[in-house]
Structures are given as structure tokens and as C-alpha cells.
Amino acid sequence: MKGGYCGKILRVNLTTGEIKKEELDLEIAKKFIGGRGLGSYILFKEIAPAIDPLSSENKIIFATGPLTGSSAPTSRYMVITKSPLTGAIACSNSGGFWGAELKFAGYDLIIVEGKAQNPSYIYIKDDTVEIKDAKACWGKLVSETTEFLQNEVGDPKARVLTIGPAGEKLSPIAAIMNEKYRAAGRSGVGAVMGSKNLKAIVVRGLGKVKSADSEKTKKLLSDLIKKIKENGVTGQGLPKYGTAILINIINEHGIFPTNNFQKAYFPLADAISGETLAEKYLVKKDPCYHCPIACGRYCKVNDEEGGGPEYETVWAFGADCGVSDLSAIIKANNLCNEYGLDTISAGATIACAMELYEKGYIKKEELDGPELKFGSAEAIIEWTRKMGAGEGFGAKLALGSYRLAESYGVSELSMSVKKQELPAYDPRGVQGHGLQYATSNRGGCHVRGYLISPEVLGVPEKLDRFSLEGKAKWVKLFQDLTAVIDSLGVCLFTSFALDLNDYCELYNCIVGENFTPEEMLTAGERIWNLERLFNLKAGISPEKDTLPKRFLEEPIPEGPSKGHVHRLKKLLPEYYQVRGWDEKGIPTPEKLKALGLKD
Amino acid sequence: MIDVLNRLGIKLEEVAIILVNGMNVEPEYILKDGDYISLFPPVGGG
Ligand code: SF4
User: Fold this and answer.
1) What is the CB < 6 Å shell around ligand 1?
2) DSSP character string of A49-105
């Protein structure tokens, strides 16, 4: 064992109460890097992909990467499980400090199996691991639970990962929160914890993550930090304004989804922009562990304060619901954090409900709360609360937009892919990004391959956002590279400044390996194909590699991207080909063999 | 466009994205009457 990895896996069976510490198979770990890759490998090996995600047969894996908690810039952990929202493999990623703390306690990952009889939490203090009673905090909000558990274990420095009431009530859009405001948000991972009666995991570790070659690592790090600081995006844009800086930019490109994607330009965008946020509500920055970028925000409205909101959140509760009241958006964001809801899915579901109401599918008599009208600040706050609490019509909203729209017979009004709500970029005006939405292994998502970077922001080079040329290749490259970055345990935002060579060198220095950048990228491709295989076995056929009808048939009605639809039909065959899959979208035996996924 | 930047006292290196009516243009672009210009520094997020 050299550096990076701890070399230990913690396995907790909640049915039997058995706690096991297993040795990490380093060969396998390196083949799949760690985090998302290694977690996906274990999940695929240990569960049958077709099981019910909320049954006790599902497992939930909390995985760090080899660079998590190391001296590398930024630190993340991932939650891998079968998603109750999509039925696909879920990997939700979160920052904060929890992941690093797990490494300090000496574990690369935790595999949680079975189902506890009563509400429970897991307490890890270095070598000591216990399953404890969580009856006293079941039903409590996230910040209250966090403080309660720190108190109960008698350690204010203990890091708390927890679900809120939404996860307890098995909402398929429930998030897992850590340090109160950081979220492994997407794909309903919170509901899987809830289904296991697992309220929280509290961690405290006093160890360190070693570097194989500390002299070389030190030198490399000073170069990389310099690169991050000197880069316009990571050195200035993100630290100064956070992710919400994107609002005006995306809007001016005419790809800022408004009123449930019925339009793509929001005339009131400036009122909810990152600039306005910084001017009116920002209290301080709130960075994750060891992060030189510090995009995290901490805001205050009246006497209510909390972490965020992020760009995607401001969009979901803002433009997507037609709301221009930033203080209401901040409140809805705080409610999501407290109840443990994914902000993108929650906001986008309310937006979908607003369109269903506008078109007469949802009737006024059904509502035990404010009218679901586009533009209503009152509606986004109150319905978010009711969703979180699973109260009245809120319980129906808490199922997510797909199941909601489907119950009225109009699932096409859910702006989702594989039942997961799409984020804040209209695919009709960014063709590559749209292809990435359609093919993402976890359903509607922007962080499996952020094509906005080249198509809009010009990083690493500017691509024509309407053109199809070369887009399939770019999507594959970004998807594979992102799988590498996630699996290493660093933040995707570092990639605005760092490239594959940097990541590879960093991995080699810290772990003590000799990977080439090509081998690293192949590991990313291996992970992507493994996730694909899981999904195929879970019954998610390639026909699901698609976009809601609106994007394929209705041109954007106004603004700078007016007249465009998404040309998926042209792009998808090329993408399958670039991936080395057959024309139906199934990875070929040759491809799997080349990637070491088949003998 | 370069003239406009000069007149506004904005250095070309500080600008990452230049839009005219929502479309990307090069700094050499010649402005027409009624053109709507957006200039953005290097930013990112998601
Ligand atoms: S860039 Fe932002 S999200 Fe990423 S690690 Fe830093 S503070 Fe956290």
C-alpha cells in the first residue's frame, strides 16, 4: 500500500447488525480508480440490477476516491445505489467535509446492506463502529438532526451525513445532506437510506491520507494550485460569484428554460442573477474541504440563513417556475436543505405542476395550498414545504415530475430523461449538451459531461453550439473524463483549469502509480460502460436514450435560440458508433473485452 | 467591436464571451444599428 487509498472497506449489515472490515482489493480499485467507478463495480457485482430499489436487497455505497482527503485540491464523496427515481444506477456526488473525514477514519468506502428494524444511525470513530438508535431524531429536519447527533456523540467536530423527512417518507427525489448544506442531491438516494431505516452516518477520524511521494506531490500541487488561481473561471468567476454567475450568461444565449421549458429566455433574469445574489444576500463564502476555488455560498434573507443557492437551484425555483423573487428562491432552497430534497428535481417538479395547472390537468379543487401559477413566490415556498413534509397534494409532488405528469396521462409534460428532471440548459440551443442529457447513465443530468463548457463558455475551446459536427466525440470524451474526475474524488469544477495530464500526474504522485493519461481515460470509459451494462440489466432499454418530445418537435419560440429543435436522431447513431456499441446501443463483446469487462 | 471595448475601457483579454443578439461573434465583428451586445468575463459553474 503506498498512498491515496486507505485500503479498507467497511461493510455494515443493518438486518443482522453485523459490522465487517474488509481489505480493499487494490488491483480492482486501480482498475476502477475509486469513488464512482469502484462503487459502481461493487454494486454491479453484489446486487441483481432488476431488484426493487427500495427493498432491503438494494445496497447503498458511500465511496471516496483515492484523492479524497489527500493534499490534492478539493475533496468529494459519492453515493452509489440503485435509484428509486430512475431505476438506473445512481451516483450522487457531494463536497463538504464528510468524505475527507471518512478517509481520516481509515475507510475508502462503506457498503450498507439490509434494513434496520428501527430508525438507526451509524457512528464511526476511527476503528470503533456502532449501529445506534435514531428514534429520537427520526422526523427531525436536517440542521436539527446534525446538531442533535453531534451532541449525542459528544463531539462538535463529528461530521454528520443525514436524510431529512423527505428521505424518511421515501420520496424518490430525496437527497442526502452532509454538514447541513451540502447535498448528494440527485436520483433519490435519500429515499434508499430511508427505506433502510438509516437516518444518518456520523464520522470522526484522526488519521491522515498519505502520499506515496510527498516531495513530488508538493511540487506538483504548487503548480496546480497556481493554475487554478490564474484561471479566469476558477480563480475569479467562481470564487467571486459562485455558480449563479451563469444566470445572465445562459439567459443571454436564449437557453435559460422558463415556465417548464415552454420558453428559453427569462426577461426578469437579472433580478435572480449571481450579481444580485452577491449584492443583496451573500453573507460569506462556504468552501468544501481543501478547496482553493470556494464557489460555495452562504446567504441570509431576513433572519433566515443557510448554504447556497446554486445556479441550478435559482433556475429551478426561479425561471422554470417563472419566479423572479430571489428571497423566495433562497427560502425554497433552505427548505430543500432542511427537508432533504433535491433542489433541481423539487423546483422542476413544481414547474411541471404549474404547466399541468395552466393546461387544466390539475384542478383547483385538488389543491390544499396556494394556486400553482407560474410566477407565484408563495407557491414555490409552500409547495416545497409540503413536498418535504409529504403533506396533502405535496406528497404527490414529492414523487417527482414524471410520476406526477404520468398520473394525469401526460408524461411528456415532465421535462425529464429516464424520469429524472433536466437541469438549467435548454438542449435545443446546445446540441452536444442535449446529446449528453439523452445518454447520461443516471438520467437527466448536467454533470456527467458538461458540454456547456465548450459549447457556451469556450473551455477548453469554443464549439458552435448549434452544429452537430464532432459533438458525439466530444460527448464521449467529456463523459469518460468526468468519470475519471468523479472517481478520483475531486471536484468537477477543477476541470475548468486542469486537464487529463494534470489529474493523471496527481494520481500517480499520490497513489504511487505509473498510469499514462490514456490508461486513465480508458478507466473512465470502462466505468461508463459498466454503468451502461447495469442499466441494460436493470431493464432500461436504449429507447430511453431520448429527450422529451417538446425538444424534438417544438422549436424554441423566442429569444436568441429561436427556431431550433434538438436533432437527436442525427446524433445518436454517431454516438453509439463512437462508443463502439452496436447500432442498437448495446456495448459489443469486443468493446467489453478491450475494456477488461469481459474475459 | 474592438472600438466599443476601447471606448468602454474594457481590455480584450478580460472578455471571454462576446454575444451580439445572443450569437457568438469575433472581436472583429462590425456592429450594426440596433445590435444588442453582451460581454462576459471568464466564468463557469453548473
Ligand atoms: S469548487 Fe465549489 S463545489 Fe467544488 S469543492 Fe470547491 S467549494 Fe466545493
Assistant:
1) A 74, 95, 287-288, 291, 293-296, 491, 493
2) TTS-TTSTT--EEEEE-TTTTSSSS---EEEEEE-TTTSSEEEEEE-SSHHHHHHHT
